[in-house]
Amino acid sequence: MGKLSVVGIGPGNYENMTFAADLALQQCQVIVGYHVYVDLVRERYPDKEFLTTPMTRETERCRMALEEARRGKDVAMICSGDSGIYGMAALLYELRGESGEPEIRVIPGLTSACSGAALLGAPLTHDFAVISLSDRLTPWEKICRRLRAAAEADLSIALYNPASRGRPDHLRRACDVLLEILPADRCCAVARNIGREGEERRYYTLGQLHDAEVDMFCTVFIGNEMTRMIGGRMVTPRGYRDV
Length: 243
Description:
Layout: E1 3-8, H1 19-27, E2 30-34, H2 35-41, E3 49-53, H3 58-70, E4 75-79, H4 89-96, E5 103-107, H5 112-120, E6 121-122, E7 128-132, H6 140-152, E8 156-160, H7 170-178, E9 187-192, E10 200-205, H8 206-209, E11 218-222, E12 228-230, E13 233-235
Parallel strand pairs: 1-4, 1-5, 2-3, 2-4, 6-13, 7-8
Antiparallel strand pairs: 8-11, 9-10, 9-11, 12-13
C-alpha cells in the first residue's frame, strides 16, 4: 500500500512553495491534479508520472489518486494554494471513509489570501473572513448571508473565485450586497496571477470594485473600517501603535 500526500503548492512559483511540499513532490512516484496546476510543477519534477483531470472532475481525480496509492505507489495530489482551504484534502478523507488505508498526509501551502495580501501590502492584519463566490457547490443565498455577516462584523474579507465565464457578474452581485452595509469608499483591491507570469495588483474603492474586471485568477480584498492606503499599499492596522 502506498502513501497519499495532499500537497498545497502555493500560488504557483517555486519560491512560495514550502520545503515540506517540495520534499513530498520529490519523494512521490505519481503527481495527480487539475491540469493547470500540474503544468506549474511538471518541469521541476520531470521524472514523475502525471495524471490529470479537467475542472469539475474533482471526485474522479481523488478516486484516481486513491487507486494509485492502493496499487502501492506513493502519490501526491496537488492543490493550488493550501490543500485544505478549498482544496482536495477533505474530499480524499470522505472518499477513503473510515478505512486507515492508504495513509493520507496533508501538506499545507500558502493560500491566496496570504500571498495576495503580501502582494497588496498588509490588508489582513486583523480579523478577516475568506468567502468563495462560486455557487457551484454553495447556494448563492448562503453566500449572500455570509457576505452580510462578514460586513456586519466589520471583518476584512478575501473573496475567492470572483468570476468565471459561466458567472461573469458574481463580483458585481457581491458588491451590491456589501454596499447595503459598507460605504462606497471602503478600501479594496484585486490581486491577479499571484506568483505567476502577469502578476498584478489593482486598488479600488468598494464603489469602483463593483465594475472591476476580474476572473478566476483573481483574489479580491475588501478592507475593514480601519483599512487605508499607506505608501501606495493597502494596510489594515491592528492597533499596536495605540497600545
